[in-house]
């Protein structure tokens, strides 16, 4: 697949590939908007596509992010949080620079002491006024 | 394709289908996050997938949004803005309720007097201090 | 108050003033981020400040948005949705251009057939499986 | 000031206080939206208010976040990124639980190898086709 970029505002091209357990690769790119906060990053486009196609926690083996700068760019904090919902903390995130050199960190290293689903009250707790 | 939903927080299932000029349909669903503002809506997942696959302004013929409530839900303002970047103002947005009854509005009707790319200064204007 | 702008990426200066029923004016400006989607708009900064200070639905009389272009810019769709949560549909939104000429629209005109709180299931409905 | 919360969807109350170099404290709380991704967190409300009032990099001495759970919640990834734009990496972030016990981490510890402004091309580089 020849992936298309839609980043006319930042002039920053980012590509993301998600490797699933069955060998499938799902791709994303940044999709920007004239109202900057409304745009989205490559990582969230790729992950949204993967989740809608059925990927669940445990199905995602690795995420790779590529940009045309060096040293390589890392996912922004918003993407680290988005990924956190669907990936194990020990999942590797590979970051590639403009010469295809890579750095690797786990999700847990990039988002230490993360906020996640287990922090929220369940519907049942809300209903019955239980405190966590 | 059996589409997967990831909306455990709102308990609100939203599906979106984008019809392209070549007859292809691209699908999306809401993908939520424990940090609520980090999640994304069905319309943006579908549109992000379509844009990365190459859809450009003029390629998108219609967008359909389905929820299990009645009357049907409309796209949130953030999604209207996201769609605005890639679609003509006269593109129809169909909204389906839990009985598959639909309401239709154009993008221009749902986002009147919209903010778009033509409002931003070009790089050249920024460089040379031209006013718009 | 001399308001500060933090919009180094879009080079687009936006100011927002919210008029409360008691005559108070709360101000905001766009606060951008190197990761573009993480930044926020003037309208949401102003409204966030107002809500934290205690403004509730019914307390907000008008919202004014000023930019240095002409014709004036309108709030992006994300901001229309954010405002929708706390304002009546007949509240006026004034948009000022670089010569202080203004256009006015109501919130309901800028976000027709809007998505709002009444569309979501209550905790009680989720708990007991009631459909809306 | 008696701070108001607007978190009817997550039922999760978060308060944030930003300590400035001149001793001023700026406060925020989560401001949620029926369209979940459109809402915002306590940290971003407080920081947006502070920036509009004139706080710049170097002016912010500490950020405290309080929730009514234990162990204390940390800022979401999106807020870590938002804060990153305006704070030094060695700035302390204090996280308080429901008994006012706190944990402290620096911004750099919470967002290692962060994405920031220095990664983006300047307007001049874009204009003249320079690579980074
Ligand atoms: Zn990102
Ligand atoms: Zn939406
Ligand atoms: Zn906006
Ligand atoms: Zn947050």
Automatic annotation (TrEMBL), chains A, B, C, D:
<protein>
    <recommendedName>
        <fullName>Cytidine deaminase</fullName>
        <ecNumber>3.5.4.5</ecNumber>
    </recommendedName>
</protein>
<feature type="domain" description="CMP/dCMP-type deaminase">
    <location>
        <begin position="1"/>
        <end position="118"/>
    </location>
</feature>
<dbReference type="InterPro" id="IPR006262">
    <property type="entry name" value="Cyt_deam_tetra"/>
</dbReference>
<feature type="binding site">
    <location>
        <position position="79"/>
    </location>
    <ligand>
        <name>Zn(2+)</name>
    </ligand>
</feature>
<dbReference type="InterPro" id="IPR016192">
    <property type="entry name" value="APOBEC/CMP_deaminase_Zn-bd"/>
</dbReference>
<dbReference type="GO" id="GO:0072527">
    <property type="term" value="P:pyrimidine-containing compound metabolic process"/>
</dbReference>
<keyword id="KW-0862">Zinc</keyword>
<dbReference type="GO" id="GO:0005829">
    <property type="term" value="C:cytosol"/>
</dbReference>
<dbReference type="InterPro" id="IPR016193">
    <property type="entry name" value="Cytidine_deaminase-like"/>
</dbReference>
<feature type="binding site">
    <location>
        <begin position="30"/>
        <end position="36"/>
    </location>
    <ligand>
        <name>substrate</name>
    </ligand>
</feature>
<keyword id="KW-0479">Metal-binding</keyword>
<dbReference type="Pfam" id="PF00383">
    <property type="entry name" value="dCMP_cyt_deam_1"/>
</dbReference>
<feature type="binding site">
    <location>
        <position position="41"/>
    </location>
    <ligand>
        <name>Zn(2+)</name>
    </ligand>
</feature>
<feature type="active site" description="Proton donor">
    <location>
        <position position="43"/>
    </location>
</feature>
<dbReference type="GO" id="GO:0004126">
    <property type="term" value="F:cytidine deaminase activity"/>
</dbReference>
<feature type="binding site">
    <location>
        <position position="76"/>
    </location>
    <ligand>
        <name>Zn(2+)</name>
    </ligand>
</feature>
<keyword id="KW-0378">Hydrolase</keyword>
<comment type="function">
    <text>This enzyme scavenges exogenous and endogenous cytidine and 2'-deoxycytidine for UMP synthesis.</text>
</comment>
<dbReference type="InterPro" id="IPR002125">
    <property type="entry name" value="CMP_dCMP_dom"/>
</dbReference>
<dbReference type="GO" id="GO:0055086">
    <property type="term" value="P:nucleobase-containing small molecule metabolic process"/>
</dbReference>
<comment type="similarity">
    <text>Belongs to the cytidine and deoxycytidylate deaminase family.</text>
</comment>
<dbReference type="InterPro" id="IPR050202">
    <property type="entry name" value="Cyt/Deoxycyt_deaminase"/>
</dbReference>
<dbReference type="GO" id="GO:0008270">
    <property type="term" value="F:zinc ion binding"/>
</dbReference>
<dbReference type="GO" id="GO:0042802">
    <property type="term" value="F:identical protein binding"/>
</dbReference>
